[in-house]
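pasting input
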Amino acid sequence: MNNKILINFAHPRFETSIANKMMVSAIQNLEGVTFNDLYEEYPDFLIDIEREQKLLLEHDIIVFQHPLYWYSTPALLKEWQDLVLEAGFAYGNNGYQLENKCWLTAITVGGAYESYTESGYNSYPLEELLKPFEQTANFCGMRYLKPFAVYDVLRISREKMRDAAESYRKHIISLQSHLDLTSGSYS
Ligand SMILES: Cc1cc2nc3c(=O)[nH]c(=O)nc-3n(C[C@H](O)[C@H](O)[C@H](O)COP(=O)(O)O)c2cc1C
């Protein structure tokens, strides 16, 4: 297998980033991976819908990499979803053009894992908070993969963050070569 991977990356203040910067460095130049920096491409929020849809059609696995902002995505990625996943393309009559492609959310989280529990101060597991993305993927006939999450990024050491970035690189390579898109299973 040689799945083509598109990374739709959204970070409004990349110059201040530590976690995402390390993760981007780990995957940006991998063969078969297209890196699409949405804030770099659309600083004015004027998204080229045709370009984005073409990119989606050219790839098998769509990764949405971003920091968790207010239990969701940075604003431009929401704008991207609202405009690019439109009727007649992602769903509806003559739609479902993304059917069987995979959706992976790759996310950095300020809070610690323990805070994302019923008794923690964030009250809900991250998987629950990401349900709108899971259901968007389902609605479009895409396969929603288990999110890749790095917790506690505001506190963990550089060394641990480097390990997380390396795990991200390995995960992307493994999806590239071992995920069977027709069955959704790993070979
Ligand atoms: C506007 C904003 C909203 C945030 N919302 C959350 C949140 O809801 N939950 C959380 O755990 N961390 C939250 N954070 C922390 C970010 O997730 C964290 O700063 C980011 O993942 C760090 O990645 P970076 O080093 O690439 O910037 C927020 C940060 C900002 C600036």
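fyi Strands lie at 5-9, 33-37, 61-67, 102-108, 143-144, 148-150, 179-180, 185-186.
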